[in-house]
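Fig. S4 source data, part A: sequence.
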Amino acid sequence: MFARWTLTIAFALVVAAAIGAVASVFNPEAPLVTGLVFTAATLGPAGALGWFLFVSPKTVTPDPNAEDNVENTWLQKAAAGAFTDLLIVLAIALTVVSVTGRSPDAEILLLGAVVLAMGDVAIRYVLTARRER
């Protein structure tokens, strides 16, 4: 088990350092600071990925019925409904943009779509949970 944890730590350090090095190349004004910040910021996620790859397969036994619960069912219903709503809103937005010929920035449209989808799932989840309790 010691070897797996050592491999996990080495993996995290190498991946974080590589991401920091790549980030430092794109900022010629302060490459050292950029590299250190990106390395520090990605060390945790890289460690989690290393644990998932090297330690988890030998220590965690997944429960085959872990996803058979009522909350997961509510979330699936909410996501399915929100997906339909998102498709309708995107179709309407595409029609408006096509007819008027005016288009806001792509960032604003994508942000709006993400916020709409997240909010829609949250509202549908709460309503489904209240209805089925």
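Fig. S4 source data, part B ends here. Residues 70-100 form the longest helix (31 residues).
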